[in-house]
Amino acid sequence: EALVSGGFSIEQAQLLAKQLNAGALPVPVEIIEQETIGATLGQISVEKSITAGLIGLALVIIFMILNYGRLGILASIALAIYGLVTLAVYEIIPVTLTLSGIAGFILSIGMAVDSNILIFERMKEELSAGRQLKQAMELGFGRAWDSIRDANVATLVTVFILFNPFNWNFLVTSGMVRGFALTLGIGIVISLFTGIIVTRTLVRVFYRTGDIKTKN
């Protein structure tokens, strides 16, 4: 006996049976049972991934606020702007958020947070060296930029390889891998904007109003 399983309709299954019977097989093929399995498992996985991402994002925001004070609040605002802009870009392109795509989006959030941490740690180093807040702020953004740029460019090279836009046979062509690479790549590009431009603008505005404080 032989069994062929898959997501076939009745017509497709009957056609496949006829094609197999017309071939070189020495025995006839008969459809014994056909079963359709819904997408519940995939839906549950997506929902759990979104929940995990939201929990992780909340923990990151709490960490940033506890560790960097009001700078952490500004970074959280920039992170929220990053999320909104990224989702808007997904809608414009458009991008379908599959399980792998959600994973790429969550990873890009982590990289966006990394940029803010590098900047704030550099600012703390400049303050520890005795520089004034305004000077420490500008030096922190300027000197952290090289590290942020190099790290993100290296990741974008990996994204290019994973996405494989030219369909090279020696590279991966899986749709899931490409979905992961696409959302990650978009997130990285946007995080460069929000990490440097948005966060820097927010810090400058709060510096002028005298509301900014840092934790040593």
Report on the architecture of this protein.
Keywords: Cell membrane, Membrane, Protein transport, Translocation, Transmembrane, Transmembrane helix, Transport. Residues 29-206 form the Protein export membrane protein SecD/SecF C-terminal domain. This is SecD/SecF family protein translocase subunit. By secondary structure, the chain is mainly alpha-helical. It has 2 domains: 1-37; 39-209, Up-down Bundle (Multidrug efflux transporter AcrB transmembrane fold). It contains 6 helices and no strands. Helix 5 packs antiparallel against helix 6 (175-209). The longest helix has 35 residues, at 175-209. The model has no long low-confidence stretch (mean pLDDT 82).
- Taken as a percent bin, the fraction of beta residues is under 5%
Task: Please provide the count of β strands.
Answer: 0
Helical coverage, percent range: over 70%
Secondary-structure-based class equals mainly alpha
Rg computed from alpha carbons, rounded to a whole number of angstroms: 25 Å
- What is the averaged pLDDT score? 82
Characterize the largest beta sheet: strand count, sense, and whether it forms a barrel.
Answer: none
The CATH fourth-level homologous superfamily of the largest domain: Multidrug efflux transporter AcrB transmembrane domain
Low-confidence stretches: none
Shape: elongated
CATH domain class of the largest domain? Mainly Alpha
Number of domains: 2
**Which series of helices and strands comes N to C?**
HHHHHH
* Alpha carbon gap, first and last residue: 73 Å
Give the CATH topology of the largest domain: Multidrug efflux transporter AcrB transmembrane fold
CATH architecture of the largest domain: Up-down Bundle
Helix segment tally? 6
